[in-house]
Automatic annotation (TrEMBL):
Pfam families: GntR (PF00392), Peripla_BP_3 (PF13377)
The protein's name: DNA-binding LacI/PurR family transcriptional regulator
Record-level Gene Ontology MF annotations: DNA-binding transcription factor activity; transcription cis-regulatory region binding
Family matches, as InterPro entries: LacI/GalR-like_sensor (IPR046335), Peripla_BP_I (IPR028082), Tscrpt_reg_HTH_GntR (IPR000524), WH-like_DNA-bd_sf (IPR036388), WH_DNA-bd_sf (IPR036390)
C-alpha cells in the first residue's frame, strides 16, 4: 500500500479521509481476505494521524462490513460474498458527558434542555457520566472511536481532557463545552456570566447590610468558579470593603468529610470580625453547610444570612438563601445543541463562547428565610426577610 503522504481535502475530517484512503486501497486489490489488514499503529505511522483517528477509521470500516475482526487473528478484508453496503445507522448521534457527582438538579436541567433540542434537530442523544478525570478521558476516547459525531462536555474539576478534546477535533468529532471551558484549548462553549453572578450576589448581600462575609466552594479549579470568585472580589473592592483571602480562598469544602467541613466552618466563624453572611459557590454546598452548622457545638455571634451563586429549586425561590442566582440551565442545553448542529452543518466560523446572563433573586420583604443564629450553639430560625441584626453591620 502506498504511504499516506497526501493531505486531506479542505473540510474533510481526518478519520473520513483515512477511511476513504483505505477503501481505495482495498478496491485496488492491495489487501486480500486471507492476509491481515493494516493495523492501528501502521495507520498512525503512514498517515501521520492520532491513535483516536486511526481507531475511528478502522471501527467505521468494521461497522460498514468492509473488514472483519477475527478473535486471536486480527482484522481482515471481508470476503466479497459477505461484504455489505453500510447499513442505515439511524439518526446522527451526539454524546453528553458529565461527572457522576453533577447528576443533580443542575445536570438534570441542562440535560433536559439538551435532549429536547437534539431531538427537535433530528439527533440521537447518548449520555455518559464519568467517575474521575482519568475515566473522563477514557469515555471521550471511546466516543471518538464510536459513532457519535459530536460531544457536549461538562468537564470535571481540574480536568485533564484538553489533549483528548484536541484529538476529537482532529478526528472530526465536534466538541462543545458547557458551564466551563478549557483555558488552554480554543473550543466552542456555552457558559453563564459567572463573573456577574459572583459580583451581583455579593453586591446584593452588601446592600442588605453585610460587611463581613465568607465564601465556601465545592469545585476549585474550573473557570466558572474562578470567574465567580473574581466577581465577588471585585464587588468588595467597588464597595470599599477589604478582600480577606482566608475567607474566600478556592479550597474544596463539600468534598471533605463531616469533621473536616466542621473544622473549616469553625475556623471561619472564629476568624477576625464576626461573620454576618456566608456565600456559597452553588446550592448543594449551601445545603451541606447548613447540615454541618446544625451539628456543630460552636455558637454564631449574632445571626448570619446565607446566599448561593446558583439555585437549588428550578423555577422557585429556595428558603435557604436570602440571595441566589437563577441560572438559565435548560437554555444552556438548548444552545449547546444548536451550536453542535451549526458545526455539523459545516459552519467553519472560529470557536466562540456563548455567555448567558443569570437572574438575581433577592428575598422579598416579609418572605420567610433561613437565618443561622445561636450564641451557645448553632440553630436556625425563620426571618421575615429583613437584614439580620448582627455585630459588625452598618445601616
Amino acid at each position: 500500500m502506498a504511504s499516506g503522504t497526501g493531505e486531506p481535502p479542505s473540510g474533510v475530517a481526518l478519520f473520513a479521509w483515512v477511511k476513504q484512503e483505505l477503501l481505495d486501497a482495498i478496491s485496488r486489490g492491495e489487501f486480500s481476505p486471507d492476509e491481515p489488514f493494516i493495523t492501528q499503529r501502521e495507520i498512525v505511522e503512514r498517515f501521520g494521524v492520532s491513535t483516536t483517528t486511526a481507531v475511528r477509521a478502522l471501527n467505521e470500516l468494521v461497522t460498514d462490513g468492509v473488514v472483519v475482526r477475527r478473535r486471536g487473528r486480527g482484522t481482515f478484508v471481508a470476503e466479497r460474498g459477505t461484504s455489505r453496503l453500510p447499513a442505515p445507522s439511524g439518526p446522527p448521534a451526539i454524546a453528553y458527558v458529565s461527572p457522576d457527582r453533577r447528576a443533580g438538579v443542575h445536570d438534570a436541567e441542562l440535560l433536559s434542555g439538551l435532549s429536547v433540542e437534539t431531538a427537535a434537530l433530528g439527533y440521537q442523544l447518548m449520555v455518559a457520566h464519568t467517575r474521575s478525570r482519568a475515566h473522563e478521558e477514557q469515555v471521550l476516547r471511546a466516543i471518538a472511536a464510536g459513532r457519535a459525531q459530536a460531544v457536549v462536555l461538562f468537564a470535571h474539576d481540574r480536568s485533564t481532557a484538553a489533549g483528548v478534546v484536541e484529538e476529537l477535533r482532529r478526528a472530526g468529532v465536534v466538541s462543545v463545552l458547557v458551564d466551563r471551558y478549557l483555558p488552554s484549548l480554543p473550543t466552542d462553549a456555552v457558559l453563564f456570566d459567572d463573573f456577574a453572578v459572583g459580583y451581583d450576589v455579593t453586591t446584593a448581600m452588601i446592600d442588605r447590610g453585610h460587611r463581613s462575609m465568607g465564601v465556601l466552594w465545592s469545585e476549585t479549579d474550573v473557570t466558572s468558579v474562578r470567574d465567580r470568585l473574581a466577581g465577588h472580589r471585585r464587588a468588595l473592592r467597588d464597595r470599599g470593603l477589604p478582600e480577606l483571602p482566608e475567607r474566600s480562598a478556592l479550597r474544596p469544602f463539600s468534598r471533605l468529610d463531616p469533621a473536616g467541613r466542621q473544622r473549616r466552618l469553625r475556623a471561619l466563624l472564629e476568624s477576625g470580625e464576626p461573620l454576618t453572611a456566608l456565600l456559597f459557590g452553588n446550592a448543594p454546598t449551601l445545603a451541606i453547610a447548613v447540615s454541618d452548622l446544625l451539628a456543630m457545638d460552636v455558637g454564631v455571634p449574632g445571626s448570619m444570612e446565607l446566599a448561593s451563586m446558583d439555585q437549588s429549586i428550578p423555577d422557585a425561590v429556595s428558603p435557604l438563601s436570602v440571595v441566589s442566582a437563577r441560572l438559565p440551565t435548560r437554555e444552556m442545553g438548548r444552545r449547546a445543541a444548536r451550536l453542535v448542529h451549526e458545526r455539523l452543518q459545516g459552519s467553519a466560523e472560529p470557536a466562540r463562547h456563548i455567555v448567558l446572563p443569570a437572574e438575581l433573586q433577592v428575598a422579598a420583604p416579609g418572605r420567610n428565610t433561613l437565618v443561622v443564629s445561636g450564641a451557645e450553639g448553632v440553630g436556625v430560625r425563620m426571618s421575615g426577610g429583613g437584614a439580620p441584626e448582627a455585630s459588625g453591620q452598618r445601616a
